[in-house]
Structure formats: structure tokens, C-alpha cells
Design a protein that fits this description.
The protein has helices at about 1-10, 30-35, 50-55, 90-115, 125-135, 160-170, 185-195, 195-205, 220-245, 255-260, 285-295, and strands spanning about 20, 40-45, 65, 70-75, 80-90, 145-150, 155-160, 175-180, 265-270, 275-280. The protein folds into four domains: about 1-90 and about 170-195, no CATH class; about 90-170; about 205-255, no CATH class; about 265-300, no CATH class. The chain contains eleven helices and ten strands. The protein is about 45% helix and about 20% strand. A hairpin with a 5-residue loop joins strand 6 and strand 7 (about 155-160). The protein has about 300 residues and is an alpha+beta fold. It starts with a helix and ends in a 9-residue tail after the last helix. The chain has a six-stranded mixed β-sheet, sandwiched between helices. The protein has a two-stranded antiparallel ribbon with strand order 6-7.
């Protein structure tokens, strides 16, 4: 983190304030303290299931901020006093709760099927087997399974309402925090969502149809560094091209931009040894605009 800060300050020269956005894997008291030492503004997210006091807040206490339902408070996080914003999304809640219901019901059916096919086993052995099934599934904690009766065994499989409802309260919620108590909620949300753009860049680096950082056919450190530099430069070129396209009012992802440009094809028609005619294929409106933006007529057949 120290090296990154020194590097950015050296490159930007006039920058006085830097913000570091943590992925959940970077969350730790040591990292937050180090960032504070470097006078960085920290933005990160918390695991909802680890903060039941926040996920348990009723939705009627949430405020509407630019169309987003948000609950804002302050809390000690990783040893610092932090501003915390809990974001709620109804569509995400419905999707996650529906998936949980489907997975739990599938586990119930698995347990019932096992019970029906192994009724002749001793009760103690049956209990151990069912317990193993629950422990091996990540959804086992949402069920309570019992085997009743002696001669005629009966299966009781019900929802563990305490854990099930506790999980439901975390759905649809994203918990953000920052060490800058004066940061606006709108800026906090915007900064954290900007992390998605960085992750998108890594996906492009690893995309075999884009930059293809892997497979890397180099084994020495010096060549690996050069190859990595070339890949980053390629990503930078893509971003600059997209930036230029956006300035003309066209909005598209880098993958769509590459696909549109790849469809602009030059065709050579050979009529005889002395007569060859070259021309471009018919372009769509978007392709014609890209053709003009990047001045591709310089390379087109005359």
C-alpha cells in the first residue's frame, strides 16, 4: 500500500488526497490502520451476516437517496469510528430468497429420499447418516431433522426458523463503510461501485478474445515483466478508444467496440491476374460512425 501511494503521488504530482477501495478480502484492522497512517480515505464493504445489528434494522428506517434505499449510521469498524451505509435492493432480495428456498427444498427432498430408501436401518445409524448429509451441505443449518418412533420410524424435517430468518434479513443488503465521517453517502456509494470497473479491467486482461494475459509463453522474470507491460498498454489503448467513442455520444463496452470494429472487413475480389478489386463490406450506422471517429479511411482501399 505504501508503494502504491508513493507511486500515485509521484505520477500525479498535484494530488493531495487519495482514496483506497478495499475488496472484502483486504478487510483487516492492520490494513485499515495502515491506510490511516498513509492519510488515505478508506472505502470498503462488510459481510452482512457479521453485522446483525445493521441487517436487523427495519426497512421503514431507510431513507431514499437518489432512488436507492439506504440506512446511514456510525459504527466502530476494524478499530476505527466509521460512517456506515446499508444499501437495500428489493430485486436482489427476491432473487436471493428464492434461491435459498429452492436449495433448502432440494436438500429436504434428498433427506426424505434417503430416509425412504433406508428405513430398515437402525435408528442410531439413520440419525448419523442424516446428520452427515446436513453437515456436508452449506444449507444444512437451515433444517432440523429428527427420526421418531422405534418400530415404525417417522421422519421430521422442518425449517430452522431462527437461522432461516436471520439469513433472509441479510438478503438484498450491501454494507459500505468509510473512515471519512464527512464523506457524503452519494460519494461513498459511487466510490465503491467504481470497484466494478476495476474488476471489469481484470476480466478483459484474462479474456482470451481480448488481451489474453494467460497463457503466458514466458518463463524468465524480465520477459514476464515486458509481456505484462504490453498487456497493460493494450488495455490502456482499449480504454482510450472507448473514451474517444463516448465523447462522440456512443456508449458501449470494450467487447462490443472490438466486435463492431472487427465486422468492418475489406474484401479482395480477384477477376483475373491483372484485375483485383478491393472494397469494404457494408457497414451499419454504428460501424460507419466508428469508421469516421478513428479515421479508418486512411487504411481503406482507394
Amino acid at each position: 500500500m505504501t508503494d502504491l501511494v508513493n507511486r500515485y503521488l509521484a505520477l500525479t504530482q498535484g494530488t493531495r488526497e487519495l482514496t483506497v477501495v478495499f475488496d472484502k478480502g483486504n478487510n483487516s484492522k492492520a490494513n485499515v490502520e495502515k491506510a490511516s497512517e498513509l492519510k488515505l480515505r478508506v472505502v470498503g464493504s462488510l459481510v452482512p451476516s457479521h453485522h446483525k445489528d445493521l441487517t436487523g434494522v427495519r426497512l421503514n428506517r431507510y431513507a431514499d437517496i437518489e432512488g436507492q434505499r439506504v440506512y446511514v449510521t456510525r459504527k466502530e469498524v476494524f478499530g476505527i469510528q466509521a460512517k456506515v451505509a446499508v444499501l437495500y435492493n428489493e430485486a436482489t432480495y427476491k432473487r436471493q430468497s428464492r434461491r435459498l428456498k429452492v436449495k433448502v427444498e432440494a436438500l429436504r427432498e434428498e433427506i426424505r429420499a434417503y430416509f425412504e430408501s433406508h428405513k430398515d436401518k437402525p435408528k442410531s445409524e439413520m440419525k448419523l447418516a442424516l446428520r452427515d448429509i446436513l453437515q456436508q451441505s452449506e444449507y444444512g443449518r437451515y433444517l432440523v431433522v429428527e427420526v421418531e418412533g422405534r418400530r415404525y420410524k417417522r421422519l421430521v424435517c422442518r425449517i430452522n426458523l431462527k437461522t432461516y430468518r436471520a439469513k433472509l434479513r441479510t438478503f438484498g443488503k450491501t454494507i459500505l463503510f468509510t473512515n471519512d465521517l464527512n464523506m457524503t453517502t452519494e460519494e461513498l456509494i459511487k466510490l465503491y461501485r467504481g470497484k466494478n470497473e476495476v474488476e471489469s479491467q481484470f476480466r478483459q486482461l484474462n479474456d482470451p478474445d481480448a488481451i489474453a494475459f494467460r497463457p503466458m509463453y514466458h518463463w524468465t522474470d524480465s520477459k514476464i515483466k515486458v509481456y505484462a507491460l504490453i498487456c497493460v498498454l493494450a488495455l490502456l489503448v482499449l480504454q482510450l478508444m472507448n473514451y474517444r467513442v463516448c465523447s462522440y455520444g456512443l456508449r458501449m463496452s470494450n467487447s462490443v467496440l472490438r466486435a463492431e470494429l472487427a465486422d468492418i472487413v475489406e474484401v479482395a475480389m480477384v477477376y483475373s491476374l491483372t484485375r483485383v478489386v478491393k472494397q469494404l463490406t457494408t457497414m451499419s450506422t454504428v460501424q460507419q460512425t466508428l469508421f469516421e471517429i478513428f479515421e479508418l479511411q486512411r487504411y481503406a482501399p482507394t
